[in-house]
Amino acid sequence: MTPAPLHLAGERLMLDPMGVVSWPARRTLAVSDLHLEKGSHFAARGHFVPPYDTRETLTKLALATRRYRPARLVLLGDSFHDARGCERMAPADCAALGRILASVEEVVWVLGNHDPVAPVGLPGIAVSSFADGPLTFRHEADPRASGELSGHFHPKATLATRAGGVCRPCFATDARRVILPAFGAYTGGLDVRDPALGCLFPRGGRVFLLGADRLFSVPMAPMRRRAEAAL
Amino acid sequence: MGTLPEPFAGWFAARGWTPRPHQLALWKAAQSGESALLIAPTGGGKTLAGFLPSLMDLHANPREGLHTLYVSPLKALAVDIARNLTTPVEEMGLPIRIETRTGDTPQNRRARQRETPPQILLTTPESLAVLLANPEAPEFFAGLKAVVVDEAHAMAGTKRGDQLSLCMARLDLLAPGLRHVGLSATVAHPEALRAWLSPSARAEDVRLVLGKGGAEPVMDLMLPEGHLPWGGHMGIASAPGILARIEEAGVTIVFVNTRAQAELIFAALWKINERNLPIALHHGSLQIEQRRKVEAAMAAGKLRAVVATASLDLGIDWGAVDQMIHVGAPKGVSRLLQRIGRANHRMDEPSRAVLVPANRFEVLECVAATEAVRAHELDGDAPRPGGLDVLAQHILAMACQAPFHPDALYAEVTRCGAYSTLARRDFDDVLRFVEDGGYALRAYDRFRRLFRDSEDMVHIRDLRVARQARMNLGTIVDTPMLKVRIRGGPVLGEVEEWFASTLEPGNSFIFAGQVLRYEGIDALTMVVTRGGDGDPRVPAYAGARMPLSTNLSFRVRSILADPRRWRGLPEPVRDWLRLQRHRSELPQRDGLLVEVFPKGGRWFMVAYCFEGRLAHQTLGMLITKRMERMGYGPMGYLGTDYVLATWSAFEPTDPEHLFEEDILGEELEEWIAESSMLRRTFRSIATIAGLIEKNHPGQEKSGRQMTMNSDLIYDVLRKHEPDHILLRATRAEAARGLTDVSRIATLLARVQGAIRVRRLDRVSPLAVPALIEEGREWVAGGAEDALLAEAAALVDEATDGAEHFADVLAEVTEGVRVRSGVVDRPRRQDRKRRPPPRRFIRSAKGLGG
């Protein structure tokens, strides 16, 4: 696992192929869009997807926290797939989440559109956005912001290879912001070429596709050329 | 031979017709209440034969209520048959109403049909399934006497066929004594088809009626003028010859193998079509209205030719087609016969077919195929056992109709030919899956869709579950597609999402018979403009190429190995084979020829396996892995329909060892689990079984990030519950779909001890077509990361030369500070006039330096 350094607002961040961002100077780890209990959300609607997504996501998160040993864990919103997700968690999963949260000194729940209320009975503070020094942590990117880490869009990108396109979740970055890929086991993605995402990167930027043990970086074309073309 | 009663005899006589023996035979079967399968070539009044007994019964015993159900794989066919059947019914003044019911039938007509059903209803498997998933179904179908399955050969062994056979089993229960009538083209496995159709899963319970074959088809081979190409599959060089044949005949269907080839041949024909003959294009990715228009023009005799793919293999009889031109090798005998049959539906005249091979190997294949057609030797697999995903859907649908006891439903299901070998354990697991997901971790008990009462009867939970189940009935799963729309104009059709992902704005490609310029993507639509320059690309579609059938492969090997049989081959092909015999040797019918030679600083190994592209690609992956272990330094491989070629840094000194049977061991298992083929299979199974929602067209793009991705589910399930019923179903289906693996096994077993290795100092004549073959190497799922690394490196190379990762990042960062004050403002002002910098990094660099 080789993380890639990225400088944002003068701060050195490490982008990790697991899909998390570490900010070593503040011993902070940011992760976005866990969508815990998405499986049971679907099951309630008659689609019995395997009920192992929460377990899978938490196992991965435990691995990330063990690797970076952060003092602070920032969850960038949509940590639960819906407002009642927290209540549906199986006892074993609850315990696993508890162990992860107990391993850090500070937990920050940035609230997202899927989980607009603070999770009940879990440690940490719930905020709509969180600022520390030059950096701001938010669920959905603010087009005017700078020095911002956010989630929400589940960016993914397709890279044309000689055997056809390979599609992966990715970090979408430019000089002003980093949008994190979704971390949850059942989270799909939105193509970075989609206007909703692209308009946050009007001058283009760089995407970092997640690989098994490294990131693959390619430039992202400026939005305007694409937007004009599509009109 | 019997005679028909009036008014049928009179109606036949008035037309100067006499009832054909197979029509009378089906009538006899009906009189004794027997099910029957009619196998006859196209034409010959097959459909009328299927309906005649019902018409006569309804004439003798007029009654209200549904009497006969007709099921066709195509909506258009159902509508067409309804029209054709109405004519005799009206002319004879029979008291019979005939109606269709498909996905297009308006709501009010459906409601009316439920209240006062017609005597004859024409429908599709999907619409039948919806009818059966209703509490009123028992009443609706109570008086049903016959179910007529058209194009039975095209349904048996497919998921739609599975669904239909499950539905027929339920119909048998609701209408005891129901006759099953199957209408089929000639097939390789008539016994298996009888069993599939049978109400008891036993072939002997279905009377087999064979229609008399028509005249033998007249087939000839057309080579391009001048040089016979060594490689390529498109057959463009033959366009002038094809056009000449079109000019000579009245109406022609030009069949090709892939949609890409259809586009190219169509373009090539129009480039030289100076007389402006009306020639149209028809393939499965074109907009449905467009296809209907072409079909209507064809039926009205307005076209001289249509270039078509398998999208026209089935369908309405046109009668007036004079010849069929097949461009490219036919790949299978049954398919060729089916296509020849499309050329002429008049029984007593021969169908005319012209085969146009695109290269030398295809000449051999075309010759082999015409020989097989003359020998009446068909190919194709027997229908495979029914899929468990379809069963899951059916169980839920049956619960929507009425509560059931698991034992009774199991007995009912196993009376279907497709499910006669279904194990009780699999049935129970599928039932558990339908109830609550059937996971070892019992997390979804409170969300159950079905519940059991104290007598073990299974009930549906509520109306909401029933409504959802009915909405998701059907077994057709589409790959993710993007609509292609002309800016400010109409939608032309659709291409696969991945193809769009390989285009850059400004790139041109050929689609729907025109050159288009890719402009961008807007929600779920790809926006294009007409025209465009540069070398246009052609969209390809996954799984578009059919592999060479085992039967044809055997015949090609036989021709190659026996110089006495070369007499029928064109001169350039004979010369080519003679040269091969001189320079190397010819592949033997039952052995394996492997050539090893150096070329361009690499070592090539070419194996003449003739087992089809898929098999060769899989074998190539396995063999290169072993080459790696043996230290040959493999660099790549290529599988065509005929050969497998590998290239490596060092000489493969022991090729025999590479083709040992143990190559199909654990490595294969591991690779299969990772392969994209298995993921595709899982996606389709998960969708049909109701695990994930079907893609609803027009769905908001922003909503798509919230939908379920089957690959993610597959990974999670495989890790946590590898033995789950859906994974078992996926593996079972993949094993059957992966006929290439069984073909490799057969090949390796056959050639042990008969491998001939020839060490040459240069490429052999027979190897040339493979080495110039364009085509993508196939890479297994596990290699995706390597591909990404390569592509990312390429992009770097193409953009800013050898840039180091960290340096780039530093530059990006430096760029920020410089930019914030200096660049932003003027750019905002000039936004309208100045084009934005092409890449952020380059402009940042310029400013920094």
UniProtKB/TrEMBL annotation, chain A:
Pfam families named in the record: Metallophos
UniProt-recorded name of the protein: Putative phosphoesterase
Boundaries of every Calcineurin-like phosphoesterase domain copy: 27-139
One GO MF term attached to the UniProt entry: hydrolase activity
InterPro entries found in the cross-reference section: Calcineurin-like_PHP, Metallo-depent_PP-like, PdeM-like, Pesterase_MJ0037-like
Highest taxon of the lineage: Bacteria
From TrEMBL, chain B:
Pfam entry (one): DEAD
Keywords in alphabetical order: ATP-binding, DNA damage, DNA repair, DNA-binding, Helicase, Hydrolase, Isomerase, Nucleotide-binding
Basic residues composition-biased segments: 828-842
One record GO biological process: DNA repair
Gene3D superfamilies the UniProt entry points to: P-loop containing nucleotide triphosphate hydrolases
Domain Helicase ATP-binding: from-to ranges: 27-205
Region described as Disordered: 821-849
CDD domains: DEXHc_LHR-like
NCBIfam families reported for this sequence: DEXH_lig_assoc
Designated name of the protein: ATP-dependent helicase Lhr and Lhr-like helicase
